[in-house]
Design a protein that fits this description.
Layout: H1 7-15, H2 20-28, H3 37-48, H4 54-60, H5 77-83, E1 102-107, H6 115-122, E2 128-133, H7 144-155, H8 164-168
Parallel strand pairs: 1-2
Helix pairs in contact: 3-5
């Protein structure tokens, strides 16, 4: 999230052949992580992979897609072939249908669970409130406004949460005006 305001400048510099800023951004995000890869592989290979198209996955992670090989949203089919977890029943891939009050929040720039996914949920959750937080990324509920909305929803899930902080959010203010020459 902290790099979002600088993206126009990073893109402009890269388009001119100066990759220093982009290289720094990529390096800052590489390396060991605290990510639980075994858990991720078990969930993906059991609950998602059986319902995916191998060719579509291959296209998404193809080096021909530029940074496509950095897509951590999917795992290559070979990982699931080797992981050997049983597939979830087909029922697990069906949308949940419920009338329980539900709060769905998404950050405008969330690369992991994009707002469109949250909007899809509204169709099968008859009492869902979908809220998109401008200028935010993953785990929108961690931001002050998201916490306010969530707290209000928990206090009274029968009532739509007030959107004062959501509507007053300015979104991203990009750090620099850029002009491609």
């Amino acid at each position: 999230m902290t790099a979002i305001p600088d993206l126009p400048h990073i893109i402009a510099e890269s388009s001119r052949g100066d990759y220093r800023l982009l290289t720094g951004l990529v390096r800052k995000n590489l390396g060991a992580s605290g990510y639980a890869w075994g858990l991720r592989s078990s969930v993906w290979c059991s609950e998602e992979f059986p319902f995916e198209d191998r060719n579509a996955i291959a296209a998404q992670v193809s080096p021909a897609q530029g940074l496509g090989s950095l897509n951590l949203g999917t795992l290559p089919p070979e990982v699931c072939d080797a992981w050997q977890v049983p597939p979830a029943p087909a029922k697990e891939n069906q949308p949940v249908v419920s009338s329980v009050p539900t709060l769905i929040m998404a950050g405008e720039f969330d690369p992991d669970t994009p707002p469109a996914w949250g909007q899809q949920l509204v169709g099968s959750l008859s009492r869902a409130y979908f809220i998109e937080l401008r200028g935010r990324s993953h785990v929108a509920g961690y931001y002050r406004c998201g916490q306010q909305v969530a707290a209000e929803f928990v206090r009274d899930p029968e009532k739509a949460p007030a959107l004062d902080c959501v509507l007053s959010a300015r979104g991203v203010e990009f750090a620099a005006q850029t002009r491609l020459e």
